[in-house]
Hints:
The complex is a heterodimer.
Chain A: H1 3-9, H2 11-21, H3 23-32, H4 38-59, H5 65-98, H6 105-114, H7 122-131, H8 135-164, H9 169-203
Helix pairs in contact in A: 2-3, 3-8, 4-5, 4-6, 4-7, 5-6, 5-9, 7-8, 8-9
Chain B: H1 3-38, E1 48-55, H2 71-84, E2 88-97, E3 99-101, H3 102-118, E4 121-130, H4 132-137, E5 142-145, E6 150-152, H5 164-170, H6 194-219, H7 223-226, E7 234-236, H8 237-242, E8 248-249, H9 252-262, E9 271-272, H10 278-283, H11 286-291, E10 306-308
Parallel strand pairs in B: 1-2, 1-9, 2-4, 4-5, 4-6, 5-8
Antiparallel strand pairs in B: 3-10, 6-7
Amino acid sequence: xxxxxxxxxxxxxxxxxxxxxxxxxxxxxxxxxxxxxxxxxxxxxxxxxxxxxxxxxxxxxxxxxxxxxxxxxxxxxxxxxxxxxxxxxxxxxxxxxxxxxxxxxxxxxxxxxxxxxxxxxxxxxxxxxxxxxxxxxxxxxxxxxxxxxxxxxxxxxxxxxxxxxxxxxxxxxxxxxxxxxxxxxxxxxxxxxxxxxxxxxxxxx
Amino acid sequence: xxxxxxxxxxxxxxxxxxxxxxxxxxxxxxxxxxxxxxxxxxxxxxxxxxxxxxxxxxxxxxxxxxxxxxxxxxxxxxxxxxxxxxxxxxxxxxxxxxxxxxxxxxxxxxxxxxxxxxxxxxxxxxxxxxxxxxxxxxxxxxxxxxxxxxxxxxxxxxxxxxxxxxxxxxxxxxxxxxxxxxxxxxxxxxxxxxxxxxxxxxxxxxxxxxxxxxxxxxxxxxxxxxxxxxxxxxxxxxxxxxxxxxxxxxxxxxxxxxxxxxxxxxxxxxxxxxxxxxxxxxxxxxxxxxxxxxxxxxxxxxxxxxxxxxx
Lengths: 205, 311
């Protein structure tokens, strides 16, 4: 099936539908599919990041800096995001293999990209609230939505990884949270180290 | 086409539309800002009254991590914006400030005097319009204060801590190499000499004379009429009326009404207040949390000459 035929058939819509409604069905679909899911997953994460960038730009004071933010900033942000997801996928794969499951880092990486899909919905909300000048409500709603999206993303990742690896939910939870905690600690240590270096630099100026 | 698929396609179209809409919104907002700051294109839709707000310490410092310009730059930009807008027929300046640094206060005062040549300017004092806050208020055609507004404090102050005793106790000595004997005037490691005190007093007196001269100019009253009250004392809005340093006791709404009267605008003419972005509302207050020296109140103003009420 060519790309055009595939687009017209709306089979891809079933993936997104399953992505929103039923993570386990999504896992079954990607396991059965003979197509590579990486390109579409990369598109989803890019759209999510684009949506977050636009939402923040709408909420923050607008300046000419927007053009840099939405071009160079978006590319840089996307590269950083992919690097984080890649490290996360490798770590989760390591935990799965350590616990005796197949893992499949490539597939985990795609699932992580797909899991960012809920963040795409931030933008319409911000646009609506911004248009009716209810900005303080928008920020509150945005905060609640981001928390909900994060929780759904974690639920989605755990469900899909548990399904594609035929692993218990607890194992999938461990595979998600061990790298997450490790990465968080690493980021905090990096920030503290960088702060220490800059502080030392400033003090010695 | 399957019903679920149709719904999903509709959602995706909605998402794409919101992306396009947000891009248009951001672009329009930027164009409006650029136009308003660089030309006379109107920021308002119909003839009305513009509002400038001066809240907090007047300063040319860019406080906090979220501010793109200093407080006094933002006020001046707003005054320029209102001055350039042909639909703005009068301006209300809302002051809630204990004053601030000399140059920043004087720059705002000068801008307001220029604005007053073009459009009626009415001041509404909030909780406090003392020292530099009163200085800028004096540029108005009419000053309203609430009965309990704290105003006055006409004067200049400079303060710096003297840690000499502490340094001696701790055994700390400063190595100072200077090009002239006054180069480290107001140093925190030693006492002030009599000569230095006289020099600083002259500086303060000079700034004070500029203050009362400008108040006299702005209020159009002789210096002798109010000099007796210009000794740093603070007073309420109602006492200010008796001293002729305030025109009327009234609220912000009274000031808006007066501005409309002076500009011969109808009572239902619109009011164009300053807008803040959502994150400004949240992070605006954080400037004072992150940006200020927590020891500020203990250590004085670190040698800055200020038109500021410091209790």
